[in-house]
Amino acid sequence: MKRTDLKILMLLALLSAFPPLSTDMYLPALPLLQQKWQQTMAAINLTLAGFFIGYCVSLLFYGPLSDKYGRRYPLLAGVSIYIIASLMCGISTSAESLTVFRIIQGIGAASGSVIAMAITKDLYKSSERQKILAYMGVIMALAPMLAPIIGGWIMTQLSWPWVFLFQALLGSIAWVGVYRLEEPIQERSEVSLLGTVGMYLELVRNRRYIALVLLFSLVVFPHFSFIGSAADTYIKRFGVSEQIFGFFFALNALAIMAGSFSCARIQKYIQAREILTASFAGILVSGIVMFLGVIPGPWGLALPMAFASFSFGLSRPTSNHIILEQVDKGAGAASSFMIFIYFIMASFSMWFISIGWGDTIKTISVIAMFSGGSVLAIWLLLPCLTSSNRDTPCLGTTKNE
C-alpha cells in the first residue's frame, strides 16, 4: 500500500471510529456516575443512547450535504462540533447535562462515519473498496479494544472528565487530517437540499437496498446490548475493577478486529454469501452457548460474546460492500441511511437491555439467538439478495426501481 493510501486509510479509520471511541472509553465510568449522581442504570444509559440519537438524526443530513458541497467542509464542521461537545461533556455536573452534551457530541461524530464511508466509494473501485473497508474494520477495531483500557487507566490515575478531554484531542487530530485532505469527490450532486428528501425516498423504493440494510442491521442487537450492560455486569455482578473490566471488554474488540482481518484475508477465496452465512451462524451459536451457561463466572459472558464479536466483525466489511453496490449515485445519502438504521437499532438495543431484566446475561443470549437465527434464516431463504445480477427479481422489485 502506498504511503498516501496509508495516510488516507488511517484518517478514514479514525473518523469512522468516533462512535466506539466516544462510547467505550467512558464505559468504566458508568457505575461511578450512577453512584455519584444517584441515578438508575436506565438514566445513566441515556448518556449512551443520547449520543446515538444525535448521531442517527445527523447522519441523514451529512451524506447529502457532502454529495452537494464536497466531503471536506461538512467534515470540518462536524468534527469541530465534536471537539467542542467533548469539552462540554467533561464539565458536566449532572446526568441531564451530560446527556445533552452527548447528543451534541453525537451530532458532530456523525460527520466522520458517514462521509468516511462515502470517501471510500469516491477513491476506490469495487474490488479495492471491499479491501479498504476490511482494513478499516481491522484498524477501527483497535478503538473499542483500547478505549475501555485507556478509560480505565484515566479513571484510576485522573478522573472521568479527562476521558472527554482525551476524546477532544483525538477529534483535533482528525480535524487536522481532514484540513490537509484534498477534496475527493469528482462530481458533486446538483440536487437541492430540499431535494434530498427525494433522494431518501428513492433509496426506500430500492427494495433490494432497503432489505439488505434492515437485514444486516439486525446483527447489532447482541453487540450493543452487551455494550449497554457490560460495565454494570462485570463491575457490579462479578466485582472486577474498572481496569480489569477494560481488559474483558477489550477481548470483544480484539475479536471484532480478528473477524475483520479474517474477512480481508479470505474474501479473495470465499464468496461473500458464504462469509456472511458463517457470520450469522456464529452469532446464533454464541447465543446458544451463553444461554446454556456451560462456562462459569465472567468468562461465561466474555468467551461467547468474543465469538459473537468475531462473527460480527467478519460480516461488516462484506455487508457494507454489498449494500453500497445496490446504488450507482448518491453514495453519501446511501451511507447516511445505512448507518442511520444501524445505530437506531443500536440505540434501541442499549435501552432495551437496561429496563431491568432479572438476568442480563440470559437476556443477551436470547437476543443473540434471535438475531443470528432470524438473519441466517432470511439470508438462506432469499439467495436473490446477493445475486451477481442486480436486476434479478427480488422482493418484487429491481435495483433502483
What does this protein look like?
With 401 residues, this protein is mainly α. The protein has one domain (8-180, 222-386): Up-down Bundle (Growth Hormone, Chain: A). The protein has 17 helices and no strands. The chain has helices at 3-16, 18-24, 30-36, 41-69, 72-90, 95-123, 126-140, 142-157, 161-179, 196-205, 207-217, 220-237, 242-266, 272-292, 299-324, 331-353, 360-381. The radius of gyration is 20 Å and the shape is globular. The model is unreliable at 396-401 (pLDDT under 50).
Question: Which secondary structure elements does this structure contain, and how are they paired or packed?
Answer:
Elements: H1 3-16, H2 18-24, H3 30-36, H4 41-69, H5 72-90, H6 95-123, H7 126-140, H8 142-157, H9 161-179, H10 196-205, H11 207-217, H12 220-237, H13 242-266, H14 272-292, H15 299-324, H16 331-353, H17 360-381
Helix pairs in contact: 1-6, 1-7, 2-8, 3-4, 4-5, 4-6, 4-16, 5-6, 5-9, 6-7, 6-16, 7-13, 7-15, 8-13, 11-15, 11-16, 12-13, 12-15, 12-16, 12-17, 13-15, 14-15, 14-17
